[in-house]
Amino acid sequence: xxxxxxxxxxxxxxxxxxxxLPLGGVDGxxxxxxxxxxxxxxxxxxxxxRPQFADAPGLGFWCGVRNGxxxxxxxxxxxxxxxHALDAYGPTPVLVQxxxxxxxxxxxxxxxxxxxxxxxxxxxxxxxEGGLAxxxxxxxxxxxxxxxxxxxxxxxxxxxxIKRGAVVEPVTVPQTRKSASGTADxxxxxxxRNNTMFRLACALAQTAEDRxxxxxxxxxxxxxxxxxxxxxxxxxxxxxxxxxxxxxSLMVRGVVESSLILxxxxxxxxxxxxxxxxxxxxxxVRKYHSEPGKLxxxxxxxxxxxxxxxxxxxxxxxxxxxxxxxxxxxxxVHMGGKxxxxxxxxxxxxxxxxx
Length: 355
Description:
single chain
């Protein structure tokens, strides 16, 4: 029996205003096309009729501005967690049950970013800008399928936005005081404002999804000061902190050595697939080659001979490199192979986002 969810449903999703992606892989969540972030409606229609995608078991889409959707991902089959999500984020006419019996609540996108566990007390993620959602009628290789529990594609044009104030940008600061309202504020004394905001940016850069998200959080803290820094100076502090992070040399308060920072999504991919080779490869790449735009070579044979990751042979490096490229973790700039002096060259992406 075929599991051709993508070819069966692509046209109806496009008609509803959403650009669908064919999904597959071990977990059924990996885009099966190159450069999936650039896929448009015309291309989606074209690949839906191609034989190589006839058995694609999954269909997904990018959340955010591209398709105008934000998904509240309830990572629990419990009815109580679903009800909490609807109470917290607002009612919606479209609910989806995932292959494992969990739930997705659909909303009209209103600027939300991708957020992992914004409320630590509940197993809920926000799939906003940069989030990839798996959608009906996707089937999982391990069994089960996605289905509309309430509503359907016709209701996507009438979705509400998430409740105002329900999604709050997290702000973690190195030094705080309690305000009259009981919330935590940054203490930036006159004469120490630049240093305080720079240290704040470094602290927040450890978990910020991108440079713009970091700037938003630091601006929020700066705006609460009695004498805020000019925005130009604030941006310089944020740029410096972000460069430290991209080089993998962001210093964490109380830790002697620099921290090697990997996005949580890489760890999530490793745990979901059981494949630690990609995570190991990216740890090595981020340690030695994390500068934006820097070109570097990765030779599977040389890596295996140097025993960079203990016990890994050349073939495992080859697979890990290919998988990292497919996931958007590495960019292949030059395909080598024309001789010993013609290695393949790679670089780290400007914006790191696991597909």
